[in-house]
Structure formats: structure tokens, C-alpha cells
Amino acid sequence: MQHFKTLAEYLEYMELPRPEHPMLSVLFADEESFLPCPRKSSAPITNECYTISLKKIVKGDLNYGRTKYDFTNGALICLAPRQVLQWDSSVVFEQKGFSINFHEDFIKGTELVQQIKKYGFFSYSVNEALHLSPKEEKLIESIVENIETEYHNNQDEFSKEIIISQLNTLLKYANRFYERQFIHRKELSNNLLEQFNDQLTAYFESGRLQEEGIPSIEQIAQKLSISQRYLSDTLKKETGKTTTEHLQLYLIDEAKNILLKPNKSISEVAYDLGFEYPQYFSRVFKKKEGMSPSAYREKYRMN
């Protein structure tokens, strides 16, 4: 897999204009202009840059990680360094919108370094892109216009600070719009929880639990063809519980059934549920139920 260490190398590979700044590139198309077209296809690649782009009309599938995304109007896509990107000639870029690329070192030493880590959407798969309303598009584009103006000006000691401030504002709005998207997709969120539990049930019934242990959240997300971060964020916003908490609740529910079987010791119950250490199982159970597994068995078993 090809990896690009510098922004210039990455843009050259993409067949896009050389950046005016060694660590920052801003491409913006107004109503009367178009963005330059990137290369028509690419094998899997990675780089050390962040990308924030708005693609208004794109046709075809873009592979991003393990998923494909069918683009629609107003899709805001945020990519982080070292994420895998791939596409072929079936993708048609209708070059309206914008694309901002900046090397991760560009924001070193600024508050944005820590802030950007809090934005889960940089870890989302492309099929979880943010879909903007026309009003939201205009707001985002107005911020990008400010960035573009500063980018093309004769840069001075204030330029970087101003650009980073505008980037920070752009990402804060993106975060707000993602929150809105989650709110308006409650039906999908509920369905996702059902699918999450269905995957756990299938895993348990397959007998893999005893052989492979408790499934990771990443494994479950892969089965659902979504990113781990998107799964976690969606369930957290809809139910108030994290994916780990939902997994633990499922395990505890299973544990209750097994605990009422008198022929199983607490350690055996723990091992049956994929816990490597019975003590950890007991701690999780007590945290969720307010009593130890043995106390639960004593209280509820049939006499």
C-alpha cells in the first residue's frame, strides 16, 4: 500500500494543484467555477493529512476502509491521517464544493490538536458522511471562503492563527450538524440497536464465545458494515449507553440464566460467557446488578 508523508506528494499523486503552503491546500469552487479533477482511479493509499471536503454531486462508489459510499448532494466528508482510501473509474466527480487538505503537523502546538481528536466523525466510514441541508451548505461554504481568502493572501505571522481559527469554527458547525443528523435518524438508531443485539445473539448461538471469547465492538461494527465510532456515537446519543455498556448488559442477561442452573460454579459461568478472569465477571455483574453473582443466585434460584 502506498503511503504519502507530505501534502505535496499526496496532491501530486492525486493530480491536483501544488499547495501554496507546504502543509495546507484549499480548493474552492464558486457558482461559476469547477474544482480540478483528481486522478480517475487509485489502489489503496494512505497519507498523513486531514481532509475536509464537500461534494455536491458525485456518482459511483468510493471505497473507504471496508465500506462503499454512494454519494449524494451535500455530503461533507472528513478523513483523518492514515485512513485507507480507494476508488475506481466508475466514480464521477462533479466538481462543485470544496476540498481542504492539511498535514497533521500544520495544527501542532495549537488547541485544535486536542479538539480535533474529540470529533468522532473523523473516524467514521465514508458511508456515514454528514448530509447537509442547503442552508447548512451555505454556512459551511462561507467559512471556507474566509479560509480560501486567507490562504491566497500574502501570508504573514497572523495567517496560520486565522486559518486555524476558521478551521476550528468549521468543525464546530460540522459537529453541531452531526448532532442534528443523529436526532433526525432515531428510527435508524433503534434499528441499529436491534441489529447490534442480533449480532450478539448470532455470535452466542454459533458457539464462538467459548472458542474466541467476548466479541470486540470492532468485530460487531464490521458485521454491521459501519465504523466502530459511528456505532458507539449513535447508540450513546439514542440510548444514553455506550456500546460497551450494551455488550455488558447482554452478557449479564445471559449470565442470569446460567447462574440459576445449580450445576455451574461462578467461575464456570464466567468462562462460559467468554470472560478470561472470573473476578472481572463478578465485578461487572455487581456493577450492573448491585449484587454479586453468588448473591443473585442465592436470591433467585428455585428451592
| Total E-strand runs | 10
Sheet/helix structural class = alpha+beta
Strand coverage percent: 15-25%
Radius of gyration: 24 Å
Kindly, what is the distance between the CA atoms of the first and last residues, rounded to a whole number of angstroms? 63 Å
SS summary, helix count: 12
CATH fold type of the largest domain: Jelly Rolls
Features:
five-stranded antiparallel sheet, Arc Repressor Mutant, subunit A, five-stranded mixed sheet, Tscrpt_reg_AraC-type_HTH, alpha+beta
If you had to describe this structure to a student in words, what would you say it looks like?
This protein has helices at 7-14, 112-117, 134-152, 159-183, 186-205, 208-212, 217-223, 228-239, 243-259, 266-272, 278-289, 293-300; strands spanning 2-4, 24-29, 42-47, 49-59, 61-64, 67-70, 75-79, 85-87, 92-103, 130-131. The chain is α+β, with helices and mostly antiparallel strands and 303 residues long. It has two domains: 2-183, Jelly Rolls (Sandwich); 186-300, Arc Repressor Mutant, subunit A, CATH 1.10.10. The strands form two sheets. A five-stranded mixed sheet has the order 1-3-8-5-6. The chain has a five-stranded antiparallel sheet with strand order 2-9-4-7-10. Helix 5 (186-205) packs across helix 8 and helix 9 (243-259) packs across helix 11. 26% of the residues are buried. Residues 63-72 have low confidence and may be disordered.
